[in-house]
Fold this protein.
Amino acid sequence: MPRLFTGLELPEDLGLSLSFLRGGLPGAKWIDVENYHVTLRFIGDIDDRTAEEIAHELRRVGRSRFELRIEGVDAFGGRQPHSLIAKVAPTPALVELQAEHERICQRLGLPAEPRKFLPHITIARCKGVAHEAVAQWLALRGGFSGGTWTAERFVLYSSRASRGGGPYIVEEAFDLEARRGGGLAAGSGRGVARLPPIVARNHPRFATPA
């Protein structure tokens, strides 16, 4: 029974930039660079038939590529922080893509996602680390400006149920179409992104012959 979620990959250079934030917070468990991503919709543990239905519906999504921007670092959990994150600007294109994934899941009978969509990249787990230490870490990195990249595809990830923070496997990738009039070539609807993603493995379970 696979544990699945949809998300966006990061290009290698941006992942490297985020990796420079690692360290300086004893007790934090840092996410491996190859597992950085922006979660769109957590699906959870489902049977193989439902997984195939979700993959089929995701292949029908037709949206254009769009720009993404990291806008600083933060922590989730308030006075009891549990994660360090890089915030991603919630642009209309990003929010609309996430909403379409939500609609697909609900049409297939999955429960609605109760949490508000807050796009981010998790860079560390810090459960048990003192709030004061996390606040100091954030203060020292308040000038981090992140970077921008183009989302050329979204992916269906699988993960191990017993571990947080990866490893994540790309089960299938779904190309976003190039904007008309831009400098990008037309999208094919499925395939490998032009910018080299950190994770670029395909699993045979959902693979579709070319």
Confidence is low (pLDDT under 50) at residues 182-210.
